[in-house]
Design goal:
InterPro entries: ARM-like, ARM-type_fold, CIK-Related_Protein, Kinase-like_dom_sf, Prot_kinase_dom. The chain is mainly alpha-helical. It is built from 27 helices and eight strands. Among the domains are: about 170 residues, Transferase(Phosphotransferase), domain 1 (Orthogonal Bundle); about 210 residues, Alpha Horseshoe (Leucine-rich Repeat Variant). The chain has a three-stranded antiparallel β-sheet, with helices on one face.
Length: about 775
């Protein structure tokens, strides 16, 4: 075809003296061209000349050849045979019940199988009308076909009492016998069912009965075989019937069907999954809004495709799915990324997939953030310089420092340790030491363990100078960690780094060999980790696998927090009493080798990706201390202390490069503020007597000066308007007092006026002259 799809071509050569057979061939050509049914061989094109007839149909294989090929490969399952016979009977039902046509040639040679394993009815050469139009059945002229004729045609009896489908149903019985037992030697062999399944034998016997009136209609035969316990009552037939009518099914029915489909695909034929199920899955996603439910069966069917087919059919759908806003679909894609990541090329990953995946780092759903972090292990080898060393590291820095979920911070550290070898030399030098150092100060104990193991797993990426001046001081501080699991890993790492430094000290010529990976370009291998610190390779992975298995009864709110250095001149903070019982170190201890030698853990790098990651789906919420405040780098004020927000604006790397960011936010309480100037003592006010109206409220000035002079405290407590209600209450009382004093003054003035009026008008006095 023009689309490149394969076809089958049937050719009939016109020979002199065979006019009768030529007319039969031309009639078959016409019938095939006009009949359209899913179970009848599909006509595509044809050509009729004086010398030959060409008929082009869909690509098919004769049933006899197909059964022989499958027998060599182990044979057909009953599921496939049940659906194949179902299709042939359905085609006969269409012909006899809907079209009033008698096929008159049902046999092994008239059945074909397409690429999906579906059976198609062909061989329309001897078809005729059941209503008698156009004469009786044409003469076959082929002796091999006469053995399929029913007994009433052979002896000429019972012509008046048989049904129109009787002859075709007899031939259907012959076809069933041949499918299970091989070519039919003679008609008498039909009496012995042979290998025909027991559930089909009763219905088969009805087909080959001597009385043509007893033979069932094709539609009733299907109904009988589909009854409970029947040969055609199975999941495979039900799936096919649903797929045939999927366009008219309700959305809820489609959702349920796709959810249950994945369980059945393992028992279905491979060709059926590739050519029948896969197109329906792609159509359901493209036009049916099936959503995330199609992902699991889609990737399951994708295993049957070669690389070229996968690139053409699956990858375009996957790329489109990543742009979806459906959270269920996004998390399913992240969880099953390992099934299709090998088929994605680097340009597709960097331009069409990674820009959508990074949105998961900012998602409010912790499960999506967690799966996004884990997916970076698969995407990192395919990311370009900008996405890997800039964009991804920016998100990792924020997650490790500010994510409220401890397991996510831990998994971020684990993932960084695994992809460290893919980073550029400058990024490794700038990021790894700061990131793992930050992890060792995490209040979440497994994150501290991950930081230690991250140092060890990426040991070959550090210079000897960094090992001595940056890494060992950090590890030494963990030797007094409250958690034993952290201390154990710290001692192990310290011994390993010291051994490395000592070997270089004994033989300085080894320095170049030891530091060969420090300034090297990014490389996918971490082979050195297996031989030198393989315990860390498996330890990092097995660490978070403990998170899903451990369920501590109480969360260590403060006991897991490393002691922060106290500024000089300030008293040490009083220890806070935590009622919760501290989690025992056994909950988080990683699997350790019996000895520290490299031989005991050789090949550990090969199991790097075999370990389970931590999961938020089953973790107890109590694992994370509820008082953690990752966004400020400290904790709320405690025991008279206050905390400040980090005043620095965070750049891409500031959260990892700011060495003191974990110790900031602990300041001495400010001294009490002096009273505002101009405030009079209470004794200076005239509380009883009247006051002129122009003086106003004596408290108004105090209130205004207090409001004007109030400055926000440096701690986060001052950000909240805690005095709002109290201020409103004081203002209301002052206003009420002022009104009362005003009324009192007016009353006093009125009384004075009354007294003056009672005495009468003042008399004019006279002055006596000397």
């Amino acid at each position: 075809q023009a689309t490149g799809s394969p076809v089958s071509i049937f050719v009939y050569d016109v020979k002199p003296g065979a006019e009768e057979q030529t007319q039969v061939a031309k009639a078959a050509f016409k019938r095939l061209k006009t009949l359209r049914h899913p179970n009848i061989l599909a006509y595509i094109d044809g050509l009729e000349t004086d010398k030959c007839l060409h008929v082009v149909t869909e690509a098919v294989t004769p049933l006899g050849m197909y059964l022989k090929e499958r027998a060599e490969a182990g044979g057909l399952k009953e599921l496939e045979l049940s659906w194949g016979l179902h299709q042939i009977v359905k085609a006969l039902s269409f012909l006899v019940n809907d079209c009033s046509l008698i096929h008159n040639n049902v046999c092994m040679a008239a059945v074909f199988v397409d690429r999906a394993g579906e059976w198609k009815l062909g061989g329309l050469d001897y078809m005729y009308s059941a209503q008698g139009n156009g004469g009786g059945p044409p003469r076959k002229g082929v002796p091999e076909l006469e053995q399929y004729d029913p007994p009433e045609l052979a002896d000429g009896s019972g012509r008046a009492v048989r049904e129109k489908w009787s002859a075709d149903m007899w031939r259907l019985g012959c076809l069933i016998w041949e499918v299970f037992n091989g070519p039919l030697p003679r008609a008498a062999a039909l009496r012995n069912p042979g290998k025909i399944p027991k559930s089909l034998v009763p219905h088969y016997c009805e087909l080959v009965g001597a009385n043509p009136k007893v033979r069932p209609n094709p539609a009733r035969f299907l109904q009988n075989c589909r009854a409970p316990g029947g040969f055609m009552n199975n999941r495979f037939v039900e799936t096919n019937l649903f797929l045939e009518e999927i366009q008219i099914k309700e959305p809820a029915e489609k959702q349920k069907f796709f959810q249950e489909l994945s369980k059945s695909l393992d028992s279905f034929p491979e060709d059926f999954c590739r050519h029948k199920v896969l197109p329906q899955l792609l159509t359901a996603f493209e036009f049916g809004n099936a959503g995330a439910v199609v992902l699991t069966p889609l990737f399951k069917v994708g295993k049957f495709l070669n690389t070229e087919e996968y690139q053409q059919k699956i990858i375009p759908v996957v790329v489109k799915m990543f742009s979806s806003t459906d959270r269920a679909m996004r998390i399913r894609l992240l969880q099953q990324m390992e099934q299709f990541i090998q088929y994605l090329d680097e340009p597709t990953v960097n331009t069409q997939i990674f820009p959508h995946v990074v949105h998961g780092f900012l998602d409010t759903n912790p499960a999506i953030r967690e799966q996004t972090v884990k997916s970076m292990l698969l995407l990192a080898p395919k990311l370009n310089e900008a996405n890997l060393n800039v964009e991804l590291m920016k998100h990792f820095a924020r997650l490790q420092a500010k994510d409220e979920q401890g397991p996510i911070r831990c998994n971020t550290t684990v993932c960084l340790g695994k992809i460290g070898s893919y980073l550029s030399a400058s990024t490794r030098h700038r990021v790894l030491t700061s990131a793992f150092s930050r992890a060792t100060k995490d209040p979440f104990a497994p994150s501290r363990v991950a930081g230690v193991l991250g140092f060890a797993a990426t040991h070959n990426l550090y210079s000897m100078n960094d090992c001595a001046h940056k890494i060992l001081p950090v590890l030494c501080g963990l030797t007094v960690d409250p958690e034993k699991s952290v201390r154990d890993q710290a001692f192990k790492a310290i011994r390993s780094f010291l051994s490395k430094l000592e070997s270089v000290s004994e033989d300085p010529t080894q320095l170049a060999e030891v530091e060969k990976d420090v300034h090297a370009a990014s490389s996918p291998g971490m082979g050195a980790a297996a031989s030198w610190a393989g315990w860390a390779v498996t330890g990092v992975s097995s660490l978070t696998s403990k998170l899903i298995r451990a369920h501590p009864t109480a969360a260590p709110a403060e006991t897991n927090v490393p002691q922060r250095p106290t500024p000089e001149g300030l008293p040490a903070p009083a220890p806070t009493v935590v009622p919760a019982t501290s989690t025992t170190s056994g909950h988080w201890e990683t699997q350790e080798a019996a000895t520290d030698t490299a031989e005991d853990v050789g090949g550990g790098a090969d199991r790097w990706d075999d370990e389970d990651w931590g999961s938020l789906e089953q973790e107890a919420e109590s694992v994370v201390a509820p008082q953690e405040d990752w966004s400020t780098g400290g904790r709320a004020s405690r025991a008279g202390q206050t905390s400040n927000l980090d005043p620095k604006s965070e750049s891409d790397w500031s959260s990892w490069e700011a060495e003191g960011s974990w110790e900031q936010g602990w300041q001495e309480p400010s001294p009490p503020e002096p009273p505002p100037e101009g405030t009079r003592l209470a004794s200076e006010y005239n509380w009883g007597g009247p006051e002129p109206s122009d003086k106003g409220d004596p408290f108004a000035a105090v209130s205004s000066r207090r409001e004007a002079g109030a400055q926000p405290r440096p701690d986060s407590w001052g950000d909240d308007n805690w005095e709002g209600l109290e201020t409103e209450s004081r203002q209301g009382k002052a206003e009420l007092a002022r009104k009362k004093r005003e009324e009192r003054r007016r009353e006093m003035e009125a009384k004075r006026a009354e007294k003056k009026a009672a005495k009468g008008p003042m008399k004019l006095g006279t002055r006596k002259l000397d």
